[in-house]
Specification:
Elements (H helix, E strand, L loop, with lengths): L6 H19 L5 E2 L4 E7 L5 E7 L13 H52 L1
Length: about 120
């Protein structure tokens, strides 16, 4: 007896097959390595053989409610913006530290030169 799938599972299987067909039409060797996962070998820019994997899943959601791809995209965009702002702040902080260190070295060099002058007298 054939297993009966939910409409969501049927849609997942449909897109899984579409991904496989697309990659095969592009000349890729597609390996099904799990219920929801496929892999295909390729060569990176350094000529090394690697595998890439693709998962096609139907996310059911979690404790916060049903899965919403739009919310996930917005959360990802927000995270990227936060990371970018943190990186900018860190770069500014680093530049200030470099300037402070440079001033300290210059001041230290002036003091040493002055002390050398005084000891030479």
């Amino acid at each position: 007896m054939a297993k009966k799938f939910t409409p969501a599972e049927e849609k997942r299987q449909e897109y899984f097959k579409k991904v496989i067909n697309f990659l095969e039409q592009e000349g890729e060797e597609v390996l099904i390595v799990g219920t929801n996962e496929l892999a295909f070998p390729c060569v990176d820019k350094d000529g090394e053989g690697i595998f890439l994997t693709v998962k096609v899943i139907y996310p059911h959601g979690g404790k916060d409610g049903p899965y919403d791809g739009y919310d996930m995209r917005d959360a990802w965009d927000f995270k990227l913006k936060q990371d970018e702002e943190k990186a900018k702040a860190a770069a500014i902080k680093k530049q200030k530290k470099i300037e402070q260190d440079k001033k300290k070295r210059e001041m230290s060099a002036k003091i040493k030169a002055e002390m050398k002058k005084q000891s030479a007298k």
